[in-house]
Amino acid sequence: QVQLVESGGGLVEPGGSLRLSCAASGSIFRFVAIDWYRQAPGKRRELVATITSAGGTGYADSVKGRFTISRDNAKSTVYLQMNSLKLEDTAVYYCKLGSSWGQGTQVTVSS
Fold first, then answer.
1. CB-CB contact of 100 with 2 (8 Å)
2. Tens-of-pLDDT digits for all 111 residues of the chain?
3. Does residue 41 contact residue 27 with C-beta atoms inside 8 Å?
4. I need a labelling partner for 61 at 20 to 30 A (CA). Which of 50, 73, 83, 86 fits?
């Protein structure tokens, strides 16, 4: 079972930026795709961004142009750079590798 640990969440004003990190254990990291999801209160968990083992990326329409997913295979870590944050980006953000989920990190966008 892969262990995933997210970090980097916090409170930020609208228009601000945050960078989330997800550190993974195990040796399969570089061979698999990694996803970032988020779940806002009272809403379903939704896919935000994905990065393949080859570095290909995909984004939800709601974050396209504002968020960037990247990975560092040497550190077994995936990042989510979030710019131009909006109130509606407030959620708990989770990374996912295969069937494994991290514990989540809270992102709150508020003035």
1. yes
2. 789 999 999 999 999 999 999 999 977 888 899 999 999 999 999 999 999 999 999 999 999 999 999 999 999 999 999 999 999 999 999 999 999 999 999 999 999
3. no
4. 73
